[in-house]
Design brief:
Blueprint: H1 8-14, H2 32-57, H3 59-88, H4 93-114, H5 121-145, H6 150-154, H7 157-178
Helix pairs in contact: 3-4, 4-5, 5-7
Length: about 190
């Protein structure tokens, strides 16, 4: 410090305390505005944690509900389409083709909606396998719908049943992981 440029206030503000504070030994104070923001932050964090705990506490039931919300309409549509194909497969090529085409669309729509459901890890693996099995089934049914005759269309039936069995196996794994009963619908 220079002797010629000093004043009492300059020296008082320039002195260091034991803690290294340059404010002349005063402790920093919290302004009322900062205190309000601090309290608000703690309260909002606590409320957010409570919300997260409540949300995840019901997640199993919520996920099961999400799945059944997707599966139930698909099963209703598939029931009509499978029954229609069973009725038309020996009688009417155009109607049988229409039933199979609608079935492909229903399976694709189910898969699209299934992607919106966030599954726990055990069910997520089965959901991925289900989507792959559905795609194989839909491709096979699409080929079946393109058959030029009812006899050739029926020749796909066993392969379609085998592909549907793979789908049903994955559905059972998902339902078991979510604590749901076995499906009463044709697939999901």
């Amino acid at each position: 410090m220079s002797q010629t440029l000093t004043s009492d206030s300059y020296r008082r503000d320039d002195r260091r305390t034991k803690e290294g504070d340059t404010r002349g030994g005063r402790e920093p104070s919290i302004s009322p505005g900062f205190a309000i923001v601090l309290v608000f932050s703690f309260v909002s964090t606590a409320l957010l944690l409570i919300f997260v705990l409540v949300y995840y506490a019901g997640s199993s039931a919520r996920i099961a509900s999400d799945y059944t919300t997707v599966a139930s309409p698909a099963n209703r549509a598939l029931t009509a389409e499978v029954n229609g194909y069973a009725h038309n497969r020996r009688r009417d090529l155009a109607s049988a083709r229409s039933d199979l085409t609608r079935e492909v669309k229903t399976v694709g729509s189910f898969d699209d909606q299934l992607e919106t459901v966030t599954f726990p890890s055990a069910a997520a693996t089965a959901a991925d396998a289900l989507t792959q099995a559905d795609q194989k089934l839909a491709k096979l049914i699409g080929l079946q719908a393109q058959a030029p005759s009812l006899r050739k269309m029926r020749s796909f039936d066993r392969r379609a049943e085998a592909a549907a069995a793979v789908v049903k196996t994955q559905v059972e794994l998902i339902r078991r992981a979510l604590g749901l009963p076995v499906s009463s619908g044709p697939l999901f």
